[in-house]
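Before our next group meeting I need something from you. Please put the record directly below this note.
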Amino acid sequence: MSTSEQRAAGGGTGLTTGRPGERGVWRTLGLRWVHLLQGGAQLMPFYLLTVVLLGIVRPEAAQGFGSQPRVQFLTFALSLPLVAVGGLLPLVRALESASARTLCGVPAHEPTAGPAGSWAARRRSAAWFTLHVSLGGLVSGASLAVPPMAVVLLVCPLVPGLRAQRWVWPWEHAGSALWAAPPAGAALLALLLAAVYGAGALLTRCAPVLLGPTPADRLAAAERRAADLAVRNRLARELHDSVGHALSAVTLQAGAARRVLQADPGFVREALAAIEETSRGAVAELDAVLGILREGGTAKHAEAVGPTLATGLESLLARTRATGTEVQVRIDEALGPPAALDERVSAEAFRVVQEGLSNTLRHAPGAAVRVLLEHRREETGGRGGRRGREGDGGRAGDGDREASRGGERTLRVTIENATDGTRPASRRSGGRGLAWMAERAALLGGTVAAGEEDGVWRLTVRLPLTASRTKAAR
């Protein structure tokens, strides 16, 4: 039958397209019914245990267990506290979440898949388990009793043997009143379906609340996401600084070698060797970062990536000088040897120097660079904040040079190079180097200042040397 014929057979009423939706409703009702019957099955161990305990405490009540509905409902009610205690087990949440996702149609992301890890989560799981088991017990009992009763009522007018029985219902067993039995049977089935639908809808609505993450779970998940994001941002900064500097250096080294290829073969050999060393170092750092990303590294692993002033400064300066750039470096004696610095501070200071040299190679090729590593003590109190802040353009006054015994010990990194004054705007609005450098300094409680003054581009970064500040910033 063609599509047009199907539409004609449906009379244009959309019955054909409505059948899948109808089947979906009945399938959902059937799955939720199975879910409720599962709850009734889970009730049985607690129910039987309550029967045994009730028989020990009240033997006369246990004798009427099979014939008195009142005793059965009492036993059902007394078994629910045992159900709640059983729901405190951590594994209950995982099992009930899987059942709710499969049978109740609850979205997979709403219940929590893992076991309950806190008492708040356990209490919620116990509440859900009690609700599921209690509704399941009632629906299971009704599912056992109502269908046979409804069938008897539906066929009673047609079966002489059933009409001869004395059934307990509020109408006569003979005459026209007997034909009221089939509608009553159909009504019982409709009530059972309505009860199953209502109980299933209630469980579906309560599942995300009782089986979902607690506020503590959400907070822990947010902290894990924030930690992962911090690790990724740090690795991105490492890639930017290492690979970006390597590309800038290699580009200038190759260009310088090409210009003097015939005139100065010795310089060409040095440039090629520097290119090889720079590329090898960049590939090693890239492999380290990619290895951490593949293995899902933590913040501790991310901090281990990259060189420090003690391990990488000399090779960095050599690679930069191989481009033909003049680099002057002065390290304050009061700072001590770079190997004695805190490893985190030393690593961040190395990246600052690397980014400063990369900026010079990109934006002022051929300009001489001056690098200063100084030890300072700076006052942090008062309205003015730190003395010698970003507005000083990297120049320290006499008061800043006088060390205050109560001030904060800092490492001050200053990088200067002459500019031609033609492209200051592009430099300020360039890539992410300065922004990520500011993030690096902020993680340690430091500051970054950059700007052009009197034809000199100056980058000034202050990093606290105090161990407590460094550890707190991690």
